[in-house]
Write a structure and sequence with these properties.
Length: 441
């Protein structure tokens, strides 16, 4: 079947490419001609492991193409996906639906036959009905249905998540639309992956509820970590102990510098706003947002506490600035709080990240970029592990310590242990949710 994917951001591009790999004819649309030119050259404007090879494969097979011409892409398509951005609206925390509704109006003018217009973007409850109203108003003769199909892709593992999902959620209003969506996801139906067909509102809510719950787990363990530091407990052991309970599970129970990225910050704020608008305050979610902000500030204090006095003129190496490994995404990354705070305190900051420099150079002015962790720590006064890239998981700590002016480490991902740090010769070591270490105590 022919599918039009409106928007070639992270969600739209990954989804469109994966649909083409299912065997569908997919046309990906974007208003940005430079992005389309990049894709047509066989290059990828985002970093996602395996995506470049999948694009090359399906373009060569004739199933995948890119264009700025929305009308041509929509013409004859049986499913038209809206996968445009829904950033947080300034002032009120709500999701900005400007791009969604603009896409709906353009789709309305381009429809030439029956199609299901599918919202892939994360949108507040009731948005799909607004999309339906917008299309019907713009083109009263249009024959279409709407569907909600939220995405659950983890950056860095998006292709595997799409091809082998925990579940696919589809919100529809009638059997005809449901049949089209079943055909879209036919390869997954045939392999018995869970596909939940529900109403529009429930599908929209599932996305927000899922992300808010995961953000809550992260924030909960970070609060427990702060308490562990005070009472002498080890948060890694606590996390393992509670995670063995099948009702809790061990995922998203890793203490660290707080959640970031494109989804959790935006979606928790949007859910809180939805609750306020409907007179049902999301008190847990609102607290999660507040505590996550506090966690980030606490990480700054951890680094500053490595020093006996002011950090003015001190050199600090920061390993990792993307919000998580295996992505180049800097959106709401903890580094955007930590690094400016260190620079503001007078420190000289060196940064190394396998994929973060492209976005980070603009977002983190005043830092010195290096390509190697050992170069970054040369004559440094402290090192901070902020993103758990694989190459930072197996560092030669002794080599690291020997290169430093003063061997002090803030391990904000708990990659190493106090024993590792001591053996390597670190004089000071702090982590998250575990007792700090000072050689001269």
């Amino acid at each position: 079947m022919k599918i039009a994917m409106i928007g070639t951001g992270y969600v739209g591009l990954v989804s469109g490419v994966c649909f083409s790999d299912f065997g569908h004819d997919v046309v990906c649309v974007d208003k940005n001609p430079e992005k389309i030119e990049i894709l047509e050259r066989g290059e990828v404007p985002i970093y996602e492991p395996g995506l470049d090879a999948l694009i090359e494969k399906n373009v060569a097979a004739g199933r995948l193409s890119f264009t700025t011409d929305l009308a041509a892409a929509v013409d004859g398509a049986e499913a038209v996906f809206i996968a445009v951005g829904t950033p947080t609206r300034r002032g009120d925390g709500h999701a900005d639906l400007t791009f969604v509704m603009a896409a709906a109006e353009e789709i309305a003018a381009a429809l030439t036959g029956y199609a299901v217009v599918v919202t892939k973007s994360t949108v507040p409850v009731g948005t799909n009905r607004q999309v339906k109203h917008t299309i019907a108003k713009a083109n009263p003769e249009a024959e279409f249905d709407v569907a909600s199909n939220p995405e659950f892709l983890r950056e860095g593992a998006a292709i595997d998540d799409f091809m082998r999902p925990d579940r696919v959620v589809v919100g529809v209003q009638n059997d005809r639309a449901d049949d089209v969506m079943r055909e879209v996801y036919r390869p997954l139906y045939l392999r018995d992956f869970p596909i939940l067909s529900t109403d529009l509102e429930s599908a929209e809510m599932i996305k927000y509820a899922a992300n808010a719950f995961l953000a809550t787990k992260i924030t909960f363990i970070n609060e427990i970590a702060a308490l562990c530091e005070r009472v002498g407990a080890d948060v890694k052991k606590v996390s393992h102990g509670i995670g063995l309970d099948g009702r809790i599970g061990n995922k998203f129970l890793h203490a660290g510098p707080g959640y970031g990225g494109s989804c959790f910050p935006k979606d928790t704020r949007a859910l809180a706003r939805i609750g306020q608008e409907h007179g049902v305050p999301m008190q847990i979610t609102e607290t999660v947002i507040q505590v996550n902000d506090e966690v980030r500030r606490r990480m700054v204090d951890k680094v500053l506490d490595l020093f006996d006095g002011p950090v003015t003129g001190k050199t600090i190496a920061v390993l990792g600035v993307t919000f998580k490994p295996d992505t180049d995404d800097m959106r709401e990354a903890p580094s955007l709080t930590l690094v400016p705070a260190l620079i503001g305190a007078g420190a000289k900051v060196r940064v190394v990240d396998p994929q973060g420099r492209h976005e980070g150079e603009a977002l983190l002015p005043g830092v010195h970029w290096t390509e190697d962790a050992y170069k970054a720590v040369q004559n440094a006064d402290a090192v901070v592990i902020l993103t758990e890239w694989n190459e930072f998981r197996a560092l030669d700590l002794k080599r690291l310590a020997n290169r430093m002016s003063y061997p002090a480490m803030a391990d904000l991902r708990n990659i190493y242990s106090l024993r590792d740090a001591k053996r390597a010769g670190f004089k000071r070591y702090v982590s998250v949710g575990r007792a700090p270490y000072q050689a001269d105590e």
